[in-house]
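Q: Mannosyltransferase, please. Structure only.
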Amino acid sequence: GSAMVARALWALLAALRAGWCLLPQSGYLHPDEFFQAPEVMAGDILNLQVYYPWEFLSSSPCRTVVFPLMTSGVTYWVIKSLQQLDICSSCINSYTLLVSPRLLFTIFSFILDYSVYRLAPFWGADPWKALILLAGSYVTLVFYTRTFTNTLEGLLFALLMVLVSSRKSSGSSAEPTSSSLIGVITTAGFFNRPTFLAFALMPLLYWASLIVDSQKSIKTLINHFLKLILCACFTAIVFITADTFYFTSMSLDNLYSTNKSSLIDVIAQLHEKMIVTPFNFLSYNLNPHNLALHGSHPRVTHFMVNGVMLFGILHILAIGAGFKMLKKYVHQLMLVRWCYHGPPGLLVHSEGSPTLLLFYFVPLAFLSLFSHQEPRFLIPLILPLVLFSASPNRAVKWKLLLILFNLLGALLFGCLHQGGLIPCLFHLEQLIHSPASSSHPRHYTLLFAHTYMPPRSLLNIKKTDMHVEVIDMAGSGEETLCQTVEQRASNFTCNDCHIFIIIPGTVRATVTKCGVSFRNETLIFPHLSMEDPPQLPVLSSGNWRSQLGLYVLELDR
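A: Structure for Mannosyltransferase:
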């Protein structure tokens, strides 16, 4: 009976994950969810006006193009093909541009559920308990349905854990196919995000210890490691070739229009200029000055703040269990050294829990070595954490707290956080492409202030169209903002010029000081800016809706 209830609950949570993706989710977590894949691919494949981040410029290639092509690239190619074949006349719009890559990631997120179901019996966890902890976590509902490289990192980490746990440590050898696949996944993970090595370290050590433990022949042992290295090298060559080809030819549009002779020239350049994006990424990120530009945090931020923010009580319980097991292990180590003169086998010969804790805390420790620490960097750790938390001897006594924590997390990050910006871009896209705009060409200036970077691709403007100008003022001060607004207001040169200022309600007063009047205003609710948070006394007054909103203000002539 309880198993049936658990299955029904998981199915409900899985439906919520897919349904909420299609709604769509309005929360905007971080600019990287757009600017590390969808925005770049929208420019390359759909020929839309976009903002290319510095990592994707040929002068500083720090991100592989393989994963963006395989995810957002494929979905955009599909909607472009559907439109060209007249299967749907307006397939390309702000909704499909946002939702199609997210939907693919949501489908991929079920790799996590499959991995948990496969791994639970191996690590002595209750499969359905683990699946509910996973599917009910706001990390799965929000972060794993977004187009982050961290999401792909989590999925590759899950697959790696499935491969290394494919056989029991009872003496039987690992599956012959796993060596090759482990090589492929580790290299692909490294090219996606070089930090993947921190997650892969423990699974690889565990796999190596199983191989050494189960193989009596040195020849078989060498064969396993050779397979892994050869497949890793082959995968690296594929990534290096694709990246070099992309960055030397500048964009996919150039590739489509290239004739045979220039293609040969591009291939010839592969020998001259090999682009290895992870090395460029590492050389940039290992420079403390560069990391400081993105924000410096204390080394304990992941351990003390981000872990709690993402996983709540599960992270705290894991820390408690970790200290208990460390104490027990030190005691055992001393006992064994005195009595048997040999170390206890923590990795292979112990029950699942200590090893799962190592799978959780070792990557966390490595990521803590860097001064730039964001919560999303830890999302791959959800897998060992739910497996550890769902072991039968660990009853979840904190059910109500877990439910409330995940409801709050889903509301905050899935709806409120910068939540007005995506609906605002939808609204502006409809306005720009309205029949009135089509019949009489108008010029639009969109000035964004105190919001996250707006993904231009969602405005659905072709590169050839010059009638829309986007100005991102980021967190500019009052003086700079007013200067820009006044300058634009005084330069009203045509009858069909429209200037819109997009600004959170908490800083709206700044624009009213600029000495300009507005023709009309639209309030998009809800929108929570953590950089310009609402004041609690104002929230308790009748003005709370304006404080939790994003204004679209049209400048009067």
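A: Brief note, in case it's useful. The chain has two domains: 1-167+175-293, 420-555.
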